[in-house]
Amino acid sequence: MPEIVSDSPRTRVTRRLRRWLAGGIACSLVSFVFAPQALAAKVENLRLWTAPDHTRLVFDLDSAATAKIFSLDNPERLVIDLAGSDVANAAVSRKFEKLNLEGSAVKSIRTGHQGNDLRVVLDLTRKVNPKDFTLAPNAKYGNRLVVDLEFPGESAVENPIDPIEARIREQEQLAAKRKLKGEPVAAAPNIKASTHPKRDIIIAIDPGHGGEDPGASGPGGTKEKDVVLKIGKRLKRMFDAQPGFKAILTRNSDYYIPLRKRTEIAREQKADFFVSIHADAFNSPRPHGSSVFALSSRGATSETARWLAATENRADLIGGVDGNLSLNDKDEMLRGVLLDLTMTATLNDSLAAGSGVLANLGRMNTLHKRRVEQAGFVVLKSPDIPSLLVETGFISNPKEERSLNSAAYQEKLARSIFTGLENHFERNPPPSSLLAWRRDQARGGKGGEYRIKSGDTLSEVAQRHSVSVSALKRANDMSGNTLRVGQVLKIPRG
Ligand SMILES: [Zn+2]
User: Fold this and answer.
1) Per-residue confidence at 331, pLDDT binned at 50, 70, 90?
2) How many angstroms does the Cα of residue 230 sit away from the middle of ligand 1?
């Protein structure tokens, strides 16, 4: 047994492990004998990231290794055997013991040996679906073995949206799409004042990067993933405090989400808008200022936009996505999707909202570019959700890095994004939203006209416009209570 088990608690653990292995399960391990030429590796580090629906373990290895992974129940355990491998040194062993396991479904981690293999046993608090894959070295890391513990039945977001509310939004979005394409739309149900859904507008906030993808780093060591999470959380608080809005975060702590999973979360939650928050670096310390990006079908609007999109689109390679998803495939998909009419409408919405956000950012920070830029960001490729990517500032600029670290500055950035989007929805509220209802109320309240729809009653129309039935009848010279569809009533000032 090498030095990693020489300290006494470790030895105890290992002895216990040996005894345990000598028991019933040992026979099931006979098949896991590796060929002598199996790759051997040293484990140099173990990292762990916890998300609401999964935990990711990343073994950093000095060379590629093969692993055998299997579950045991009663109690729940996951066994990871790394062929012909070992832990690099005692410091790494201690790291195994010191990992923060909170919320991870892992109670404790034990290591030992099974023949020539390094055996890692995870004691679990719940049943998990394990998935594993290896990653080749990239700019940030060497060889890695990734083990994802998926929690069956858990949502990827912390407080998922109410399913009934989601259904209302889904139907509304579907109707809008049909209308856009000139397809027949079932007569819109007459929304009466008392039954108006007054739904919340859902904003999906996507703090970029996370977990083993730190994003860009500032000269002072600030990591983009940390700054954008803080800004994202502030932005969520603002929307949640605003009547008529609710926000969800694609990630609420430090873990990685693949680019396409981010938009998938927004779509599952039936979000009305998706905003991705970043603070990138450029290859020189000079560039500074905020910028706002929308998707482009025709290439980038500037050199920086092209450079940033290429950088962002590489995130999956760093963040560790098992995949045969090459960037070229995504670009191909992107071109296809952009032919869709809905996408054009979505893009126009994105650009309109983006101008508002940019204008507000311009009041607190210099702007990198005066208009909403466009480039082929994968994370913006949602055919039916208007989406923006906000570069809050360049973390590579020393002055901007300092600002990005300040709570007051983060709050101002969040406020600018909030105001831009809030104004956009005040101007263009979805029909079933509280904002649309309030706008209609306000129009009525100022006095004006109302066209009777099927299903309206005099008392409801009066109530909706905050006037009495008698005042309404007087203003329209009515004697009875009969209304006909299409009839226009004068609404007296309430
Ligand atoms: Zn970024």
Assistant:
1) low
2) 14
Distance 216 CA to ligand 1 centre (A): 6
Report cis status (omega within 30 of 0) of the bond before 75. yes
Q: 357 and 349 in contact (C-beta within 8 Å)?
A: no
What are the residue boundaries of the structural domains of the chain, listed by start? 3-150, 163-427, 446-491
Please state, in angstroms and rounded to a whole number, the distance separating the CA atoms of residues 271 and 430: 12
Q: Just give the CATH number of 446-491.
A: 3.10.350.10
Q: 450 - beta bridge partners?
A: 489
Name the one residue in this structure whose structure tokens are 């090459």: 326
Write the pLDDT tens digit of every residue in 375-432: 888 888 887 899 999 999 999 999 999 999 999 999 999 999 999 999 999 999 998 9
C-alpha to C-alpha distance for 292 and 315, rounded to whole angstroms: 19
Location of structure tokens 């149900």: 189
Rounded Cα distance, 449 and 491, in Å: 5
Fold of 163-427: Aminopeptidase (3.40.630)
Q: Which of 10, 75, 90 is nearest to 44 (CA)?
A: 90
User: What residues have their beta carbon closer than 5 A to ion ligand 1?
Assistant: 208, 215, 278, 280
Whether the bond between 152 and the residue before it is cis, its omega within 30 degrees of 0, is: no
Helix (H) or strand (E) holding 201: strand 201-207
Residue 24 tokens read as 């019933």
Asked whether the beta carbons of 148 and 130 are under 8 A apart, the reply is yes
Q: How far is the CA of 351 from the centre of ligand 1 (A)?
A: 20
The pLDDT value recorded for residue 441 is: 77
Q: Are 10 and 113 in contact (CB under 8 A)?
A: no
**Terminus-to-terminus CA distance in the chain, angstroms?**
86
Distance separating alpha carbons of residues 346 and 349, to the nearest angstrom: 5
Task: Tell me how far the alpha carbon of residue 469 lies from the centroid of ligand 1, in angstroms.
Answer: 58
Question: Which fold would CATH assign to domain 3-150?
Answer: Immunoglobulin-like (2.60.40)
